[in-house]
Design a protein that fits this description.
The structure is a single chain. The protein is an alpha/beta fold. Helices cover about 30% and strands about 30% of the residues. The strands form six sheets. Strands 4-3-2-1-13-14 form a six-stranded mixed β-sheet, covered by helices on one side. The longest helix has 18 residues.
Length: about 475
C-alpha cells in the first residue's frame, strides 16, 4: 500500500507533463519596397523554399511598393504583371498597398488586384468608386491551428491626406489616419487571433511613433522608408528589410499553446542563395526584350548618385530652354550609371513615372521659399532635412543647430531677377511653397528627353560634383 502511494506523485507529474502545451514555431518571411526587382526573385525563391523545407509553419508577407523601378516590369505588355505572376508562383500569402501601387491610377490598380492569388489588405483606404472596390482592412490566416491576424495600412502623410503621388491618382478615395485605423482594427482582432501583425507602409518613423502609444500588436512588418529595422518598441517587434530585394526578413514567433512566448527577427541577405533554376528561367523570359536591351548611347565614365541627378537637372533645363533646371531626389530612381553602353531599359529604370517637364518663372526669393519649405517639411519627414532639390545652379541651405533651414544662398543668382526654371511636374503639382509666374506643364516627358540627350550627346561625361550642400550654423 505504501509503495503505491510513493508512485502516485510520479504518475501525476507524468500526466501533467503530457498536458503541458508543446512549443510551436511560426515563421513570417517578409519583403518590402521590392520596386519590381524581379532579377532578385530567383534568390528569393531559393530562400523561401529553404525555409518551407525546414520550418513548421511559414507565412510569406509583403509590405508594399511592388512595382515602379524596373522597365521589364513597368513597360511589360501589361505593366506590373511580371512581378505579380512571380509572387503568385512563390505563393505569397498576404500583402498591403504601398504608395507606388497607385502610380498608374486607382482604376488600373483595381484591375491588377484581380490578378493576385494572395490577400491584399489595407485598413485606411475608403472607396466609393466602381473602378476601385473597397478593400478588406485585415485577414486572418491559420497555420497548424494558430490564428494569425494581419492588418494593413498605407501612408497618407505625403499628399497630404493621401500617399505620395499625383492627386489625380487618388480622386474619389479617402485615406484616414493609418495609425488610428491600425489601432481600431488591432483592437477588433486581438481577442480573435493568437498572433497579431501590422503590415505597414507608413515608414519606420511613423511605425515607431504609433508603437510608442501602446498597441495590441505582436509584430510590425514595415516598409516605405527603405531602411533595415530590428527594434523592440513598447514590447512590439518593429521590422523592415531595406529595399530592392537585397534581403528577406525572417521573423520567428514561438508559441506555447496559443500564447506567444518569444519573437526574434533576422535580416537575411539574398546574395547568399544560389538562384532557383525554374524561377531564373522565368525571369530570363521577361528580360528577353530587344527594344529595351538595345544601347542608345554610352556614358564615358561612371555616374554616381550626384552625377545621375545632375544629368537629369541639366537635361530638363536644356530641353525647356531654361536658365535653371531642378529635379527632386525622390524622382531619381538609380544611384549610379556605370560607364559603357546605356539602353532604353536603364533610362526607364531611372525615370519610370512618365514625368513631364514643367516651366515657371521664379526669383531667387521664390526659389528660396520652395527649398526652405521642403527642408523643414513636417508631414513628409522621409524627404525633409536633406538636399531634396538638385539644381543646375549651386546653392547652400543654411540651418540652425536644430537642423531647421533658415536661408538659402545662391552664389550665381541676382536677387530680384526672374529666371526661367524647368522642373518635374511632380514638384510643380505637389510641393508646398512653390510660387512663380507663367507656370505650365509641357507635353515633354523626362524619359524621352533623357533618351534624346543620350543619343545626341554620347558619350555622356557625368558631373559627379555636388552642387548643393547644407551648412549648419554653430
Amino acid at each position: 500500500m505504501k509503495r503505491r502511494i510513493l508512485w502516485l506523485p510520479l504518475l501525476l507529474a507524468a500526466i501533467l507533463a503530457s498536458c503541458t502545451p508543446r512549443e510551436r514555431t511560426l515563421v513570417l518571411l517578409s519583403t518590402n519596397d521590392m520596386h519590381a526587382r524581379i532579377q532578385r526573385f530567383p534568390q528569393l525563391a531559393a530562400a523561401v523554399a529553404a525555409c518551407r523545407d525546414t520550418a513548421q509553419y511559414v507565412v510569406l508577407v509583403d509590405a508594399g511598393d511592388r512595382w515602379t523601378g524596373n522597365a521589364y516590369v513597368d513597360m511589360a505588355p501589361t505593366p506590373g504583371m511580371p512581378i505579380l505572376e512571380l509572387m503568385n508562383a512563390l505563393r505569397y500569402d498576404v500583402a498591403t498597398l504601398g504608395n507606388h501601387e497607385f502610380d498608374r491610377g486607382q482604376a488600373y490598380l483595381g484591375r491588377m488586384l484581380d490578378s493576385v492569388a494572395f490577400e491584399v489588405v489595407c485598413a485606411n483606404v475608403v472607396s466609393d468608386t466602381c473602378t476601385f472596390p473597397q478593400m478588406a482592412p485585415y485577414t486572418v490566416l491559420e497555420r497548424g491551428g494558430v490564428r494569425i491576424g494581419f492588418v494593413g495600412v498605407v501612408t497618407n502623410y505625403e499628399g497630404p491626406g493621401h500617399p505620395a503621388g499625383n492627386a489625380s491618382s487618388f480622386a474619389g478615395l479617402e485615406f484616414p489616419d493609418p495609425q488610428r485605423m491600425a489601432a481600431r482594427y488591432g483592437a477588433e482582432l486581438r481577442g480573435r487571433v493568437d498572433v497579431l501583425v501590422l503590415v505597414s507602409h507608413m515608414g519606420d518613423d511613423r511605425d515607431e511613433e504609433y508603437l510608442a502609444t501602446g498597441t495590441p500588436y505582436d509584430v510590425v512588418i514595415g516598409g516605405h522608408t527603405h531602411v533595415v529595422r530590428d527594434t523592440l518598441v513598447g514590447g512590439v517587434l518593429l521590422t523592415q528589410t531595406g529595399k530592392n530585394l537585397s534581403n528577406i526578413g525572417v521573423t520567428t514567433i514561438r508559441l506555447k499553446g496559443r500564447k506567444v512566448v518569444g519573437r526574434e527577427f533576422r535580416v537575411v541577405p539574398l546574395d547568399g542563395y544560389d538562384p532557383d533554376p525554374a524561377c531564373a528561367e522565368r525571369v530570363a523570359h521577361y528580360y528577353a526584350d530587344p527594344e529595351l536591351n538595345r544601347p542608345i548611347g554610352e556614358f564615358a565614365s561612371a555616374a554616381d548618385a550626384w552625377g545621375v541627378a545632375n544629368w537629369m537637372a541639366d537635361a530638363v533645363a536644356d530641353e525647356a530652354d531654361a536658365e535653371i533646371g531642378i529635379y527632386h531626389v525622390g524622382g531619381v530612381r538609380l544611384d549610379s550609371i556605370p560607364a559603357g553602353g546605356v539602353g532604353t531599359a536603364r533610362i526607364f529604370d531611372l525615370e519610370p513615372f512618365g514625368t513631364q517637364i514643367a516651366r515657371i518663372g521664379m526669383t531667387p526669393a521664390q526659389l528660396r521659399r520652395l527649398i526652405v519649405t521642403k527642408y523643414n517639411d513636417t508631414e513628409n519627414r522621409k524627404e525633409s532635412h536633406r538636399v531634396d532639390l538638385v539644381a543646375t545652379t549651386p546653392y547652400e541651405i543654411i540651418t540652425d543647430r536644430r537642423d531647421s533651414a533658415l536661408d538659402v544662398r545662391f552664389p550665381r543668382l541676382a536677387e530680384g531677377r526672374r529666371y526661367r526654371v524647368a522642373m518635374s511636374d511632380y514638384v510643380y503639382r505637389n510641393y508646398k511653397g512653390l510660387e512663380g509666374t507663367d507656370g505650365r506643364i509641357t507635353d515633354q516627358k523626362v524619359a524621352d528627353v533623357l533618351l534624346e540627350e543620350l543619343a545626341d550627346d554620347s558619350p555622356v561625361v557625368p558631373d559627379n560634383r555636388p552642387r548643393q550642400r547644407v551648412v549648419r550654423l554653430r
